[in-house]
Amino acid sequence: MRESKGAYVAANGLPLADWAMTRLDRLGAIASLIAPAANWAIGNRQMRWLLERTLGISQGRKLPA
Hints:
Layout: H1 2-12, H2 16-21, H3 24-43, H4 45-55
């Protein structure tokens, strides 16, 4: 079973979700660097408008810091 799964991954690569789950330490480090910018964007009126237009996050919704 392991050999066949290994052969499948070698031929097709990992799906994005599996790839991300195997690199949580790197993704966490990157997210901690981005956190101040994300908090600023959530509190900025113009950025909230942009987030509403691009991601569908309502401008009137209160988000946690």
